[in-house]
Prior knowledge:
By secondary structure, this protein is mostly helical. It is built from twelve helices and two strands, in the order ααααββαααααααα. Helix 2 (12-29) crosses helix 4 (52-64) and helix 7 packs antiparallel against helix 8 (153-172).
Amino acid sequence: MMATDNEIEGGPRRHGGRYIYEELRKQILTLKLKPGVQLDEVSLAAQFGLSRSPVRDALARLITEGLVVILPNRTTLVTPFEIEEFPNYIAALDLMQRVVTRLAATQHRPEDLEAIREADAAYLNAVTRGDFQVMSELNKAFHMAIARAGRNPYFINYYERLLSEGQRLLHLHFDYIVSSASANRLGRDHDDIIQAIAARDGDAAEAAAHEHTVLFQRRFLDYMQQNLTAQISVT
């Protein structure tokens, strides 16, 4: 029997929208849905066996996260990523990473430092297992724990959007990262940041955050130069 509007609104619709959001988000971040791919409400509703309303809700949430975009002609796409914009992305990420990490060093409470260390331990466990999807989620969780320790909601919200975009880039070259660095070395990328925050050293925290961004940039550009130079010129 088909669900009524009230039944859909009260439970299954809300649950369905959350499921669609989580599934689409996972596919976008792991590049199963490629940048620039068109998303059609009718097709997605048929795919998930739900009405268009929860699909619309899921897409709206993905739009707020910057993972989906609506063009002026109302076409909905997975947000494209132009490699020419990579320097601009890195500049924005570097600035925000330095800011939130400095704030975490100067503003954190004991429970914040505990949350940061717990997030890093979970990330290291995923690195050891080689679980790429979990790695990217836990890496983001680690950096968001740092952002929350700084207690500035404007920085937190913008930083989260940058980290979500970065997850797609991480998945693009995860194989290269793991093959070019031991699991132990990869899992130690956060050590200097944590130590500086724990010491309440704002200058050291900002410097460590900058070095972390530079490391991400270098790994990505090395990957691009070794794997995609035939299609793309990287500067």
